[in-house]
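Quick note —
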Amino acid sequence: MALLWWSGGIAHAETPETCGADTVVTLYAGQTIDAGTVTVGNDEYNLYVTFSAQNGWLLSETHLHVADTEEAVPQTKKGNPKVGNFAYQTQHDPAAQEFTYTIAKADLAFDSTDSLVVAAHAVVVQQDSEGNEIENETDWADGDRFTNRGSWATYFGHTWQECVTVLGPLTSGATETAFAFGGTLATCFLDIDQDNDGNGDFNRWGWTNGGLAPGMYSFEIYAGAGRCDLSKGAFVGMLTVFYDGASAFVSYDLFHPYVLEETHLYIGSDILAEDVNGNPTVAPGQYPTIHDNLGGVGSDSYTVTGLSGAINVVAHVTVAGFEYFAGF
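Predicted structure written out below.
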C-alpha cells in the first residue's frame, strides 16, 4: 500500500510496508455503484485499513470495526450493524480521497485461524467545481451480508499475514570481522607486549585464548568489537573446541541471519601464530588453517592434529548478514 496513513489522529508521510498479500475489496455506494476500494494489510505490529475513493467520489465519513467473529461487530437485535458504535470513526472535512486506520496487533482479537472480520462503512460525496456537494451515498465494503433482511450492510475477512525476514543481496558493507572470545581465558591482542617495552606489540583487536588443557570449551564469537570492547560488538555465534591432548576438533556455528564467508584458525603452544619470517602475527591471512570462499554457510569445522600440552586458540571469522530486510 502506498498512501498517506494515520495513527492516533496524526498524518504520517511514510508508506506502511505490509507483509504477504493484502485483502482488497470494492467499496460499493448505494449497493451497486463502484465508489472505490478498501484495502487491508498488516506488518509485524499493525493492521492497516485503507478507504480509497475513486470514480469522482470523495470520503465524507468512514466507520470501521475489526473483530474475530461476525457476532462481535456491534449489531441490533435483528442483526443490523450499529455503525455509530464502531470502534473507529472519522468525519472528513474537507472530504478526502484516501484515509488509513492503523490498529496495533495487540488491540485485535483473532479466531483460531488468525483471521479477522472487517466491517467497513463510509459516506461518499461528489462535488461540483466549486467544492459544493451535489450527491452523497452510503457505502459498504463488499462481502457477506450481516442479515438477509433489512440492511444491506456487509463484512469481509482478512487473514493475518506472517512477516518473513530473509537475507537480501550482500554488499561490500555487509561483512564484519569477528573473533572468538574465551572470557577469562582470553587475552586481547592490544594487551600483548612480548618485548616488554611497555607498549602493545599489535594495533588490531581480537583475542587469543589459552592455555587450554584437554577438555571441551565453548567461546562466544563477537563481530565488530573494536579495541576488544564487547559493548561495541555483535554476538554472532559460538566456537566449540574439543581437545583430547593430541588433536582438537573446532566448530564455528553462527546465529541467523549471520553467515560465514571465511574462517581462519590458529591452534598451538605459542599464544599467537607466526608469519613467514617466524615472527608472531595476529593477521588472519597468515594463520596456518584457512577456509575461504565459504559462500555464506552457517557453520564450519576443523580437525587439527599433532598437538600436546596446553594449547592456545585464535579463531577469526569474516561474517556476512549485517544488511538484511523483510520481504525481499
